[in-house]
Amino acid sequence: MDIDLPSLAAGQHRASLEEELGAVFAALLADSKGARDVVADIHEVCARRAEALRAEAAEQLHRPARHMALKAVADEMEAQAATWQLLFCLHCDEAAPAGEGGPLVRDGGGAMLYRQRLADAVVTEPELARCARVVAWLESLAEEAQRRGGAGGVGGGGGAASFQPQEALWYETKTEMRAGTGSVVSELDPDAPSRTGRPLHPSNARSQERLMGRVWQLLRAGKTPEVLELCAAVGQPWRAAALGGGGPWGALPVGAAAAEADEAMAEDVQAEELADEVSNGAGTLLALWRWAALQAAGGAAGGGGSDGAWRLERAVFGELGDSAAAAAPACGTWEDFAWSYCRSWLESQLTRAVPPEPHSAPDLVAGDAVAAALTRCGVPPAAAQRSVEAALSVVLGTHHGAGGAAAGAAGAAAEAAAATAAAAVAAAQQDAAGAPAAAAAVAAANAAAAVAAAAGARAGGGFAAMFAHHVMAPAAMAAAGPPAVQSLRQVQGLLVAGDMGDLASHLYGALVDRAGGAAGGGGGAAADAGGDDAGGGAATNPERRWRATALAAHMLLVLEGLGVLGGGGGGAGAGGAPGGAAAMLLDPFEAHKTSDLAQRLLTYYAATLLERGQLGLAPPYLCCLRPGLRGQLTGELLAAHTRRLTGLAAPDADAAGTANSSSAAAAAEAAAASRAAADAECYGAYLALEHWFRRCWERQAQPAAALASSLSTDIRPNELRLQLATFAVSCRHSAAYGPAARARVARWLAYPYIAALQAATAEDEERRAAAAAAADGGGGTAAAAAASESDVAAREAALLAGAAAGLDPLAALDVLDFANCCCCELALGDDVTAAAGQLLFEEVLPPGIDDAALLIADSLESGERAAVTAAAGEGGEAAADGGAALRLAAALRAQAAELASWRLYFGLDGQLARWLSRHEMAGAGEEAALAADGCALLHDYLEQLLAPGWMRDLATCSRALEAAAAGGGGGAVRVSLTVTSPPGPGAAQVPTAQGAGGGGGGGGWGQPTAPYPELQGAALLEFQLALESGLRRAAAAAGLTAAASPSSPSNSAAAAGSARPAPSIEVVVEGPAAEGAPLPQGHVTVHLAAAAEPRSWAALVSLLCGAVRGGLPGVPPLLLVALQADRATSLAVCRRCCVGQAVMRCAALRLSLVALGADAESPATGPQLLEMLAAPPEAATPSSASLSCDGGGGGSRAGDLVAAAAAGNGAGGLLELLAPGQLQQLLAVEADTVVRHLRNRQAGRRLRQ
After folding, report:
1. Scanning 216, 401, 655, 1153, which has the fewest C-beta atoms within 10 Å of its C-beta?
2. 359-371 pLDDT, tens per residue?
3. DSSP string covering 1059-1119, please?
């Protein structure tokens, strides 16, 4: 079971893994660091977290479960650090894998030492270089383990404790031998235990085992000089001589050891070795020493009292003799076995690549003399003779005949390895077969025997094949650690193999598509592991899977930055190390497949970041996705931020519950602060997206050689504007976004203007500060500064001009167009949608945005005029895009004018809503103030909205027909509106659920997070059928020919049989698709189309107004959800509906004012309302275009309003905008007003009497 990890104390914050990885990746994407530096940084992150977890686990020893959980995570992070270290060694380390073999000898004629030739062979052969880098990685892991004070895979040997001088001398054995007990050896030479078959004194045997354990540790870490120093210091110089036959740094140092060896080797020593090799043959003594070490590893154990020491000593000599089988019993971990076998493979292959030069026979000691000496030392004559013959074959290069001379000692090593592997397996199986160390020894020896036999042959697979089939074999992986560590060993094996396709497939299959991970081409050993093991048990531990996903996604990104993921090259600082996998993916199909899997994994990681609420980390990763995926996740990121913003639009439920203990003002202030914080968070997200998209666009414009990595992006220059516009449009047509949520979405489109205004403000403050400093330095008075401060209007105008100069015209057009479309839809709804429209202007859209659009239009037009003038002066032609600039300027002017009209409409609507709220709660003595405010509001309605002809210039038929002709809709005016049944007591609707636009629960209709109500099942079908039949009957009743489709035969016949055909309107009603649900659910869409001519367009507008306002016979009441049409048609519908509603509100407000005691015949209470409706066109006077706002009599003021209404509303006047039902209701309200006025007069007369 999973154990919860301890949490931090209050007030503490520890950066999460994804936060640290995000900071590192941000440096890579910003090109401030190269891919190599990023690999090192991520390794440091994993190592630091592993160390912190181990320290924390040490403090939890009194809580065993928590201690074990912390230790398991520390092991996992340590394995992750090792993986990134391997990645660095394979693709980032620019140093030669085996060094340079020391400095060249001057005046040597270009002759090279055998060691230098070996180092050059490693550099030139990719397989050898790859193996050498893996060996260097494994040795660095052992060195780090020793630095931490761990056992470092000693097997049965001692730890990392220090040794005393002369500690390994056999004093106790000497004393016991002199006592003559016969329990110990009878001689004190190094071969005495094996020759006599007697043990050392127990204390000396323990010291011997401890010493050999430390020697194995140091050899495992590549520290041969320390091995020799240790043996000499503890009193065993003979052992130092035996182990140092390959040189003070070993036969072939790699990695850091090779670099240290190159620095330490002096030129005079190099000259002596070169002279010796010239005289006696290059590499001969090295081959002979390896052969001797192999013989020592294959000797018989002595005494039975020093099995541990003998096992370690045999492993040490076996490793020096290239025998992985002899070293297998000492390998306690997977790293030990991998190092032993890779080191043996490297040295044996190097012997094949650079064979030793044979030694001249006359210079050798006679073989008979050597055999006689061995016989005198107790060696059987036959064995002595065979050993001498084998040694001479190595020295003379005659082993296995002339054809095997190139193999040198490798053939003997392979034969001995094959023989000793079987013995190791048998011994391990007989001795504690149930112990983990024995099982590891069995697996290691089996693999070693198989590969040693393959290495003995001249033919065989490369290093990657050997590593995959033997080091990554299931038997060897059994000792690799817990499941989480084993999964990382699989990743390490794939990195060693170098096939990025298999690596990406394995990571995607194990972490994302677990069901098809093994079948998806996990590759080699990864597929062998199968099932849950491939993910390290991540299916049962989500946090482990999340950590693995985060690091895997960054690994693929870094591999792309290094230029090795798809086989491509990188920019400056991005190239991999020699022998890398950059050329392994030559097939374009495989490269595309690998890139696709990497994109999927990165998408999964970014989507999980959004799901976990870590929204601030996502923007950099979005830049690396393909356009389709990037657009999808950017929309999800914006939606998540919008949910937070919309969910805080109302006071919190807990705050509402404690309203009795806090004032309403405090609650409103807290809600405003919460909304401001959410808005600041959204603005920060916008700035982050803008920064990264702009940075990637600038990065793409640079040459590849100037980049720090090969990380590729495909950001468009206007990426963020397109993403914001796409998101806003999708929200406007999404059923999950209610009226308030759609209004809040417009905030995203307003952020570019806010950012431009902030930049202009900052620039102005800097300029003013500089001017103030100059004035102080010049001894000027403070009067000038005070005068400049007083000119607030001029400063605001300058800031607005600066914001307009820094704003993209298309971004300004986007926000204006979206806001105007939302206003149309919200104005044609009910009181809830009207409240959302008020919210749009009060909290969402910043003031001055339409003025900035007008300034941008002026700038575009002036620039175009200047370009035309310059072209005319030079005798040329204007730029081809000049017409586009003028069209953009015209569109901005039209949209700005429309937005100003909507601001007026919703502003008056909001004032009326607040006045009505005051009217309901008004107490005694407040009637006079309430009546005065109501009179002022009524006057604003009449003077600003009704009299000037609101929206008349924008809602013309000519604009609609021009849009139809330019839209390519087949010469027809097309309108699509999405509707639903309005909420009410008798409405059958689906219960409101949490939508994408809401922050908390959806709540009822009218709540800030509530989406539009939806219909389902029978209620939906009934509403759809009633709507379709009602629209058709309404069209027929008006003399229109309704058709279900353009090709309807009945409609064609009706049109052909009529001498003067009536305007035709196509009516198509569609319901929502089921989409897997048992019953269809959602909204109904109505498609209307009319011919592009005035009569048909007017009929279409009338039909739409009747449907939206209600009152069409047979058409059920509906609530508009979305409207798609050209701007002129939409505004024509809005003008009729909104002006008619405004007239009704004015009449109701007039009645309320009279009820408060106001005089119905006073100009302040709007008695001219009916006169404005009935005013004929000839009532307009030349001076009625502008109303007089100064003094004058009440009669002249009323006459001005009537004349202005006649002039501003055209031939039909305001009366044509009212439906018959509205006109009847208006007359009834006016009658009630007159009755109430008469009653007020009677009551006043009684009071006077």
Report:
1. 401
2. 665 555 566 666 6
3. SSPPPEEEEEEEPPP-TTSSS-EE-EEEEEEEESSHHHHHHHHHHHHHHHHS--TTPPP-E
